[in-house]
Amino acid sequence: MNLKDPSLLRQAALVGSDWIEASPETGLAVTNPATGEVIGYVPNLGADETRVAIEAAEAARHGWAKRTAKERSQVLRRWFDLMMANQEDLGAILTAEQGKPLAEAKGEIAYGASFIEWFAEEARRAYGDITPGHAPDKRILSVKQAIGVVAAITPWNFPNAMITRKAGPAFAAGCSMVLKPATQTPFSAIAPAVLAERAGLPSGLFSVLTGSSRAIGGEMTGNKIVQKLTFTGSTEVGALLYAQCAPTIKKLGLELGGNAPFIVFDDADLDAAVEGAVIAKFRNNGQTCVCANRIYVQAGVYDDFAEKLAAKVAQLPTGNGFDEGIIFGPLIDQAAVSKVQEHVDDAVAKGATVTLGGKPHTLGGTFYEPTIVTGVTSDMAVAQEETFGPLAPLFKFNTEAEVVAAANDTDFGLASYFYARDHARVWRVSEALDYGMVGVNTGLISTAEAPFGGVKMSGLGREGSRYGLDDFMEVKYICMGGITEGEEVS
Ligand SMILES: NC(=O)C1=CN([C@@H]2O[C@H](COP(=O)(O)OP(=O)(O)OC[C@H]3O[C@@H](n4cnc5c(N)ncnc54)[C@H](OP(=O)(O)O)[C@@H]3O)[C@@H](O)[C@H]2O)C=CC1
Ligand SMILES: O=C(O)CCCC(=O)O
């Protein structure tokens, strides 16, 4: 990999103020999913190093929280500038370890950096309020204060943005953070930590721990110093961490799995719906928790939509993310390939038809053909489980009531999408969908300005937007008494 600044590919973890270098003998190998080549090594750390990092975070946080919001904001702004100045290198590191095409990886760096920029601005707007008192001599003050030491665990699918969406508000609020990135994509966490140091983030405030997820996660969830755990990943691991946090009553932010419906009504702009479906379904090769998992198309436009979607997707090239013009990179690993194949096979066994793709790509490795399946019904596995891969299953429906019921018939409630023109329907359906997020006539809803998060088993809390800062702060009530009428004190 040719980087302008090779020091950004640092094969080390940051524990408090110390960098711990990795060695091939004892470290964990990080591989390129497109080629299987080893990119480098990271240290295999555990509970002891996590404890050291948590104690360093506790020591560093007080001074950081005492700085003015403007001072914190300026450090974050420098961090944002450095990320953008190094967008090319950060994108290349991301493509090398995650597989997504370079243009998409650079897009993720800009998206990830935008959370640092947004929260650098929001840092100065953590307003409290004053409420009229319940007694003549009292006033009620509500002030917002940093929650304290935050532990973060992040996934491989957005290995930059899922970190910055947590670190931005945490540091803006005045918290410190101990992070465990996904083992498959640690370099995309370490490089921003190198830049954070250069931006002037105080020593100890931010640690990046690589190694055993159980040991690191066990210490993070069991340690009383940690006040909040913020996690993005599978619902299964989220539920486990939720339980592990119960004895020490931590605050939780959980961004978990989805099972997003994407609905196309008869009155939709069909070409726009096809464009939207390509983005909502195939972004990051379908490996996104907000990816459309079930595509419902009304009977009158079903065949047209299916044909147009297949024609569009068939033109999009698959290959190594470093090659020019590639849209579909490899999937993250063989388990991901198996999951897509299971869903395709299950649907076909129950009567569905593959109209595009449907098998591993001739490129081999973890490449899989972008796939469209028609005639999908509610008894098929894909109706209830997140595929997390490039499979677009098309369900047919007749009425609005029927599709809203089908869309809501899931344990999950993260993103949902629909295309329609009728004004009353747009309002009705937006309000009827049991989801944290609804995209109306758009397949792309993610942005730093918006509250990202789910309901039901998709998680707790919101990231991004002004609400995202609140999730890293506590409201303290100060009862101001002794305000008596009468004589002035001279
Ligand atoms: N909502 C989302 O954004 C995501 C959803 N998923 C879903 O989850 C499926 C599995 O993906 P996977 O990567 O395995 O997701 P996981 O939930 O297993 O991993 C996410 C993060 O949690 C860590 N982790 C795993 N087990 C533990 C544990 N016991 N204690 C503490 N931390 C832990 C992982 O570390 P390590 O890498 O070391 O295992 C990683 O950093 C996907 O197919 C997809 O359906 C996956 C990623 C993101
Ligand atoms: O949790 C995920 O899968 C990442 C969401 C990416 C986004 O912000 O759109």
TrEMBL record:
Q: Does the keyword Oxidoreductase apply?
A: yes
The name under which this protein is listed is: Succinate-semialdehyde dehydrogenase
Native organism? Tritonibacter litoralis
Per the UniProt entry, what is one GO biological process?
gamma-aminobutyric acid catabolic process
Q: Which NCBIfam families match?
A: SSADH
InterPro entries, per database record:
Ald_DH/histidinol_DH (IPR016161), Ald_DH_C (IPR016163), Ald_DH_CS_CYS (IPR016160), Ald_DH_CS_GLU (IPR029510), Ald_DH_N (IPR016162), Aldehyde_DH_dom (IPR015590), Aldehyde_DH_Superfamily (IPR050740), Succ_semiAld_DH (IPR010102)
Q: Name one GO molecular function term.
A: succinate-semialdehyde dehydrogenase (NAD+) activity
Family the entry assigns: Belongs to the aldehyde dehydrogenase family.
Q: Does the keyword Oxidoreductase apply?
A: yes
Q: What is its EC number?
A: 1.2.1.-
Residue limits of the Aldehyde dehydrogenase domain? 19-478
Q: Which GO terms describe its cellular component?
A: cytosol
**Active site (record annotation):** E255
Keywords for this protein: Oxidoreductase
